[in-house]
Amino acid sequence: MLANGLPLAEIAKNLEIAEQTYHRWRNQYGGMKGPEMKRLKELEKENGTLKRLVADQALDIRALKDIAEGIF
C-alpha cells in the first residue's frame, strides 16, 4: 500500500492498527523477508520452551538436593 502512494495514516486506519504499531513492527522486522520472519518466530517459540525446561530442571535439582540434605 505504501508503494502505491497511500499515506501511512490511511493504511493504518484500513488495517485497524495504530501507526505506532506499524513503526514498531518496521523497526523489528523491516529488513526481513517472509521466511526469515517465520523462522524468527519459530526460534522465539523454541527459546521459550527451552527456558521453561531449564527452569523445571533447576527446580527438580533443587528439590533433590533438599531431599538429600534431609530438609524434607
Distance between the termini: 64 Å
Largest sheet: none
Report the C-alpha radius of gyration, rounded: 23 Å
Number of domains: 2
* Structural class assignment: mainly alpha
- Principal-axes shape call: elongated
- Written as H for each helix and E for each strand, in order along the chain, the element string is HHH
Poorly predicted runs: none
Q: How much beta, percentage-wise?
A: under 5%
Separate helix tally? 3
Helix content bin: over 70%
Please, what is the average pLDDT? 90
Number of strands: 0
Question: What is the compact description of this entry?
Answer:
The chain is mostly helical. The protein is built from 3 helices and no strands.
Could you characterize the architecture of this molecule?
- By secondary structure, this protein is mainly α.
- The chain has two domains: 1-31, no CATH class; 33-72.
- It has three helices and no strands.
- The chain has helices at residues 8-15, 19-29, 34-68.
- The chain is elongated and about 70 Å long.
- The protein starts with 7 loop residues before the first helix and ends with a helix.
List keywords for this structure.
72 residues; mainly alpha; 2 domains; elongated
How would you summarize the topology of this molecule?
Layout: H1 8-15, H2 19-29, H3 34-68
